[in-house]
Amino acid sequence: MSEVEEKKKEDFAKEFMIEEGLKGKARRIKIMRIIEMVGYDKRKIKTALARSTIVDRIHHE
């Protein structure tokens, strides 16, 4: 069952990357990890990916 889930996550990540115009194995692995946390909602994945790739952290005063 675990192998089937991994394949499903990888296929979903590849599809998401094609739609967003993203490339790279490391980014696909990051997206697969995000899928484990937030599920298969593309809007949530996009938000989590943007948050995880912020160059400078936001410091609130």
Radius of gyration: 13 Å
Helix/sheet category = mainly alpha
Global morphology = elongated
Order of helices and strands: HHH
Distance between the termini: 48 Å
**How many helix segments?**
3
Q: Could you name the ranges where pLDDT drops below 50 across 5 or more consecutive residues?
A: none
What's the domain count? 1
Estimate what percentage of residues fall within beta strands: under 5%
Q: Care to count the β-strands?
A: 0
Helix content: over 70%
Question: What's the pLDDT, averaged over the residues?
Answer: 90
Give a verbal description of the structure:
With 61 residues, the protein is mostly helical. It has one domain (2-52). Helix content is 72%, strand content 0%. The protein contains three helices and no strands. It is elongated, with a radius of gyration of 13 Å. The mean pLDDT is 90.
List keywords for this structure.
61 residues, mainly alpha, 3 helices, 72% helix, elongated
What topology does this entry show?
Blueprint: H1 2-20, H2 25-38, H3 42-52
Helix pairs in contact: 1-2, 2-3
Summary of the model, kept short:
By secondary structure, the protein is mainly α. It has helices at 2-20, 25-38, 42-52.
